[in-house]
Amino acid sequence: MSITAQRMSRIKASPSIAISAKAMEMARAGRDVIALSAGEPDFDTPDNVKIAAMRAVIEGRTKYPPITGVPELREAICRKLERENGLNYAPDEVLVCNGGKQVIYNALTATLDPDDEVVIPAPFWVSYPDMVLLAGGTPVVVETEAANDFRLTPQRLEEAITANTKWLILNNPCNPSGAVCSAKDLAGLAEVLRRHPHVWVLTDDIYEHIIYGGEPFSTMAQVAPDLHERTLTMNGLSKAYCMTGWRIGYGAGPKELIAAMSKIQSQTTSGVSSIGQWAGVEALDGDQAFIEDNVTVFEQRRDLGVSILNQANGLSCNSPGGAFYLYVDCGETIGRRTPDGGTIENDGDFAKYLLESEEVAVVHGEAFGLSPYFRISYALATDRLEEACMRIQRACASLSG
Ligand SMILES: Cc1ncc(COP(=O)(O)O)c(C=O)c1O
Fold it and tell me: How far is the CA of 17 from the centre of ligand 1 (A)?
């Protein structure tokens, strides 16, 4: 008899983390692997944030923190939401968690009953469906299309909603597609949600600041204030502030929901590292200029990646408006033969072929719920990105048939 609970058979380990671990293992064995699989900026955490953390240690802010977050950080989050998003939240409507990931986990665990459904547009961040399954709910995956820049349409949303729908998860800008929903797009989705008052919205805004030109960032509670009372606005410091290792995320929403999420946190991980939280206060209140500098670099890398990959035989991708990923269509490589006599049957085979033949790690589209694609992250040094994209071109040129 297995030691593991039955619910464990419903979920899998994060595929993007598994592929990155494999790439790291190959690199440790001396291979010149280029990992385009990890979702984290290569830039370092800003010095003012590091100094704030050191100050917290020296000043002895090292005791158990409050479950919900240190008051100074919750207040800084409220100021941020007001300043940047025009949203009014009181500190007791905010919960600080161990990264954005725990916000989502707490929210789903606190709200899903058996039979509850969660609408998830695909391609999606790999963890959403598994978190829903772990919480006992049912993910309802809704495909989007490259022709519509992978944005969810009101019609598709309408079709996916049933009497059992509890949440819509909206990730804007999107990992893995980089798609950005404009205020107009969100207003169209809000129209549908108004017709279904039992559906809540979880907006994952973690890539908020990584957005290029044109479209300014918008979030649901701002575009549709009447939905504020059934929206959980999730965000965090991992991506824009280059703080993936610090584990600071937050959710803002109605008091009853935040209290239920805190209850879970109180019985599981307790409050987030006090040192990270003090660093978080400085990140939100301190100088923000570096974000724009980093985004300029990301934009140049996006353009480089799009240009090289669109010249690869059998690949195509659009130029996304945000995040630091490209979601590349590899449909034309399906059925082609590799130099060692194998056949590319699906995007998993294609990713495996890239890793084995050119030592480039990417994540296959199946992991994100939409095939045949693969995702690259361009959050790595520009010369390594260029080298990796040239290797991908070479791998494509070596396919036959
Ligand atoms: C869309 C999305 N949401 C949430 C997260 C989790 O962020 P954190 O590292 O703050 O837990 C990630 C991280 O990759 C992500 O891509």
Answer: 12
